[in-house]
Amino acid sequence: MRKSVLLMVLMLAIATVASAQKFALIDTEYIMKNIPDAQSANDQMQQATKKYQAEVEAKTKEAQAMFQDYQKQVHTLTTAQKTQKEDAIVAKEQEAAELRKKYFGPEGEMAKMRDQLMGPIQDEVYQAVKELATHHGYDLILDRASASGVIFANPRVDISDEVLQKLGYSN
User: Exposed, middle or buried by CB within 10 Å (0-12, 13-18, 19+), for 169?
Assistant: First the structure.
């Protein structure tokens, strides 16, 4: 009996604290789609991705062609020639892997480009969200785009359009 009363009091206290907090939602995907600079940056990154991916695929195809050629000639090659061709194939595969890392790795060209192009825009969005949170007294603002736990949210708590207006983009 004591435990159930204690549990009820605890739940009531939690509910009281939770109801005192103000929260809102934003949808960063929606916001970014409505910012022309973000769309331009996204287009530039897609073009660079295609270019870099083509270069990586070309190296990979060279390595595959070398391997197929090796398989056709394997029976006629000496041990030294086999070793030489195998080393060349491995070197070409390593070139492709290094190129992939150079372009798409965590410190690669695409990461640098994303930071350079999208970083300032994301900072502006963050600053606008922060100002709105301070102005309206929000304790918590969730991002609907990245919060996989949000199953449903009432549209009245979504302040994405307010963020866009704060940034100077009417929708």
Answer: middle
Give a yes or no: residue 49 inside a domain.
yes
Question: How many domains is the chain built from?
Answer: 1
- Give the pLDDT confidence score for residue 101 in this predicted structure: 96
Are the beta carbons of 128 and 163 closer than 8 angstroms? yes
Domain residues for 162?
17-167
- Burial (Cβ within 10 Å: 0-12, 13-18, ≥19) of residue 30: middle
Going by pLDDT thresholds of 50, 70 and 90, the confidence category of residue 146 is confident
The reply to whether 119 falls in a domain is yes
- Residue whose structure tokens are 């994303």: 114
Looking at residue 169, what DSSP letter applies?
A: -
Asked whether the beta carbons of 143 and 28 are under 8 A apart, the reply is: yes
pLDDT for 4 beyond 90:
no
Predicted pLDDT at 13: 59
Distance between CA atoms of 4 and 6, rounded to whole angstroms?
5
